[in-house]
Design a protein that fits this description.
mainly beta; 11-stranded mixed β-sheet; 4-stranded mixed β-sheet; 8% helix
């Protein structure tokens, strides 16, 4: 049987007002004005309590929107649930501050979080769109991680995004990046400390430089100077060993490239000196053992250490009893014009030097220094030659040549040399004369040897004939 109470006022001056159904209390208002549903001891303006689930449901039947607050006793979890296909909005001072749209995207400062992604923080105030994460258990020294952009407070004064950390003034904050490996978090794979980046490690205490440090090499630099170093870092005053090992360092500045090295040292100690091994200057010249060009202009300059001669070493990786082990070649554009080969000769520890020149694109074998030789040898095997004609009238050709003492115009006054004159030889033996790039004549004295031999033969033939005539006359 239903019961109905109609009145303007229900009032008690001494205690609580309780409402019951089926002999069980359902609601009460205590003497403090707190309303309790399912509880006889409400502790807030509205308290709801139930042994199963406790639900507060508000429904706008005009649009079908409803909100439910519940706390299932089985798990103790709390929910705010919007059963309609509409956003859940949180506001303060009648202004929307945050919303969760119907797709689960969260927006702070925006009514359209899906425009940005699953989580968006938006602000029209410079530097205000910032996310901060901090564990304050360490007090003022607790590290702070922040995400933001266009921050005018000193972190960033341009329209760029930033992730940064802060710490107490006596410490340097680090920002670590790592990934899970087989379901477990791995050690930091990239670390940012003091503006420097470490990959696979925490950067050393670099100073005055921007650094990318890895296990092995480090890329760093400042003020137009860039370095690639191994096993060393610069603390602002000294280079220091990272591990007990050798040090290498390459740097470039104003177009000059320099390679340096240091002997093995102890981890954490100062590198006593970095020795320059090689440099390429801004004009493209290669300098080895020296920091400046020799007198004159040479693309490659090699200087030996104090008291030692300079070496240019060439090595064939696998020893062989024949073939070139090293070569110096000259090119005109892409065309080879001359070379000197250093070749093995019948044994791993024997060799000879062979020269070549190119004529109309084909290589021509030149003089060589044979194994154990002390002078140049010219190839003369008959199988290499085409005989055109014998030499004739050698004595006549030689008899007109001037044989003189003299000196080159560039010689000192006390120099005395023995000469033939190229113009004289050219008139009778043009095959022995050549012209250089400046139009000056040169004489191959070795080419005169066959002519001299022929002249001796002619003279000997004449002597033999005259001797025979004399003997014939004496025998009459």
């Amino acid at each position: 049987m239903a019961s109905t109470i109609k009145c303007d006022t229900i009032q008690t001056d001494t205690g609580n007002i309780a409402f019951s159904t089926v002999a069980s209390e359902r609601l009460r208002i205590d003497n403090n004005g707190n309303v309790g549903i399912g509880t006889t001891s409400p502790t807030s303006l509205l308290s709801l309590s139930r042994s199963t689930e406790c639900v507060l449901k508000l429904t706008n039947t005009g649009v079908g929107s409803s909100w439910v607050i519940l706390e299932p006793s089985s798990s103790g979890a709390g929910y705010i649930h919007n059963i309609s296909n509409a956003p859940t909005i949180f506001s303060t001072n009648t202004v929307e501050r945050m919303r969760i749209d119907s797709s689960g995207n969260v927006g702070i400062g925006t009514t359209s979080p899906s425009t940005y992604g699953k989580f968006a923080v938006v602000s029209s105030t410079a530097g205000a769109a910032k996310i901060s994460i901090q564990d304050t258990s360490g007090g003022s020294a607790s590290p702070l991680l922040q995400f933001g952009l266009n921050d005018t407070s000193g972190f960033n004064t341009s329209d760029a995004s930033r992730i940064w950390t802060t710490a107490a003034s006596s410490t340097v904050a680090s920002l670590n990046f790592s990934a899970y490996n087989n379901g477990a978090p791995s050690a930091a794979q990239m670390t940012l400390t003091g503006g420097n980046v470490g990959i696979g490690l925490t950067p050393n205490a670099w100073s005055g430089s921007v650094v990318l440090q890895m296990t092995g090499p480090s890329l760093w630099g400042s003020s137009g100077l860039s370095h690639l170093s191994t096993n060393t870092y610069f603390d602002g005053t000294n280079y220091k060993y990272i591990a007990t090992n050798f040090v290498t360092d390459y740097y470039q500045l104003s177009g000059t490239h320099v390679w340096r090295y240091a002997a093995s040292g102890t981890a954490g100690t100062n590198v006593s000196s970095l020795n320059e091994a090689m440099r390429i200057d801004s004009s493209g010249n290669l300098l080895v053992g020296t920091t400046s060009l020799f007198t004159g202009t040479y693309a490659v300059n090699i200087m030996g250490a104090a008291g030692n001669r300079a070496y240019l070493g060439m090595k064939r990786e696998t020893a062989s009893t024949s073939g070139a082990c090293g070569s110096i070649q000259s090119f005109n554009g892409t065309n080879a014009i001359a070379s000197i080969d250093f070749q093995s000769n019948g044994a791993n520890n024997s060799g000879f030097i062979q020269t070549y020149t190119w004529s109309a694109g084909s290589s021509v074998q030149g003089p060589y220094v044979n194994t154990g030789g002390t002078s140049w040898t010219t190839a003369s095997d008959e199988t290499l030659k085409d005989i055109i004609a014998p030499i004739e009238e050698a004595t006549s050709k030689l008899s007109g040549l001037r044989t003189v003492f003299g000196k080159y115009k560039t010689d000192h006054d006390d120099v005395r040399r023995i000469f033939l004159i190229a113009q004289d030889v050219q008139a009778v033996l043009p095959e022995a004369v050549s012209t250089d790039g400046n139009g000056k004549l040169g004489l191959n004295y070795q080419d005169l040897v066959p002519v001299l031999v022929k002249a001796i033969q002619e003279q000997q033939a004449l002597i033999t004939a005259l001797t025979a005539r004399i003997e014939a006359l004496e025998n009459k």
